Automatic annotation (TrEMBL):
Transmembrane segments: 12-29
Claim: Transmembrane helix is one of the keywords in the record: yes
UniProt KW keywords: Membrane, Transmembrane, Transmembrane helix
Protein name: NADH-ubiquinone reductase complex 1 MLRQ subunit
Length: 88
């Protein structure tokens, strides 16, 4: 049974599945530990609705969002310029 799935042709499938599981785990852990609206303990859940705008803003403005804020949404800017800029 193991020889059926442990062939070199299947390695990309394992890699893609591993990346997807990693992204899901990162998202779940980030939401449980950092999201101000998720309360795990019973005492925090009993507090009701909190007006903690500063904590919510801190969660929303993470490193990745700050990094890509002023970037152009292009994957290959050189190729885009080549095909769209008439002076290039």
């Amino acid at each position: 049974m193991a020889s059926r799935w442990l062939r070199p042709e299947v390695y990309p499938l394992f890699a893609a599945t591993g990346v997807a599981v990693g992204i899901c785990a990162y998202s779940l852990i980030r939401n449980i530990t950092g999201n101000p609206e998720v309360r795990v303990t019973k005492e925090n859940r009993a507090a009701g609705i909190l007006d903690n705008h500063a904590e919510g803003e801190k969660y929303k403005e993470n490193f990745l969002r700050k990094f890509v804020r002023n970037k152009q949404p292009e994957i290959m800017p050189g190729i885009n310029k080549f095909f769209t800029d008439p002076t290039y």
